[in-house]
Design goal:
single chain; alpha/beta; Nucleotidyltransferase, domain 5; six-stranded mixed β-sheet; 8 helices
């Protein structure tokens, strides 16, 4: 690599983790001009630094080439597949079954910019935020299982139903999902039990406790949001398309798990 190195660059240990999981080059068409390692270095630079595509340093591959792979893998679901493969490996390293039996769900409202399509944003009156809402499902280790981005005015119960509908039949061992009081009510609980055959357990904060307190079970997903927040691109929703917003969450999760596996 004959260029300046950045702190987001993949080390040789990171690349050994990721390379076997990446799609093989097609035999048709012209050969790749830039290596996938450099393409990923550029995408990780974007998600960590929060810069615009056109502001990418000139010693990285051209932004058009990098964006091409980002969009290609977003449309094909490659980011989510890569996240799944890494999550299963991390769970095995931790002595867990690759498939989780319990999970936690929560949401995060974030502001959008004027780039976001008008029909993909709304106003969250509770958080007083105009933008979008990330609905995140994580396992007991805090690893991302599924993310769904919706308008911020959509209630948590409806957002959870949308997320659960997308993963119905995907996690065979899943039996219980923990959530906070925003998901309370028989409507969602009965729907989850009837359609998904899971138990939705509401973990509420005690009214007697004042100030900050760690709530059992729920803290796992809140910590996951904190991990994702280390990536500046996720400090706000800068994306025009919702699918791009979801892709960047998976990319941030991929970076986290790649570092864990490389250390192991």
């Amino acid at each position: 690599m004959s260029r300046q190195t950045y702190k987001t660059d993949l080390t040789d240990e990171h690349w050994k983790v990721l390379e076997p999981l990446l799609p093989r080059p097609s035999r048709r068409g012209r050969p790749r001009e830039h290596s996938l390692r450099e393409i990923l270095n550029a995408i990780f630079y974007i998600v960590d630094g929060g810069i615009k595509w056109r502001s990418m340093p000139h010693d990285l591959p051209p932004w058009q080439s990098v964006y091409y792979y980002f969009r290609l893998w977003t449309k094909s679901g490659q980011w989510e597949q890569l996240n799944t493969a890494l999550r299963e490996r991390v769970r095995r390293k931790a002595g867990r079954d690759p498939e989780p039996s319990a999970a936690a769900i929560d949401s995060q409202s974030v502001k959008t910019t004027e780039e976001a399509a008008a029909d993909t944003r709304g106003y969250d009156s509770g958080k007083q935020i105009k933008g979008r809402k990330r609905h995140l499902l994580v396992d007991t280790l805090g690893l991302v299982m599924k993310v769904v981005v919706l308008c911020a005015n959509i209630q948590d119960r409806d957002g959870a139903q949308t997320l659960f509908d997308k993963i119905h039949g995907t996690f065979a061992r899943l039996q219980k999902v923990w959530a906070d009081g925003a998901y309370a009510g028989p409507k969602l609980g009965d729907w989850v039990k009837a359609k998904c055959h899971w138990v939705l357990e509401i973990v509420k904060r005690s009214d007697d406790v004042k100030g900050f307190v760690v709530v059992p079970k729920r803290w796992v997903v809140e910590r996951s949001f904190s991990w994702l927040g280390r990536n500046r691109r996720l400090s706000k929703d800068y994306e025009r398309l919702i699918e791009s917003s979801e892709a960047f969450v998976y990319i941030a999760s991929i970076r986290l798990m790649t570092k864990r596996l490389a250390r192991a």
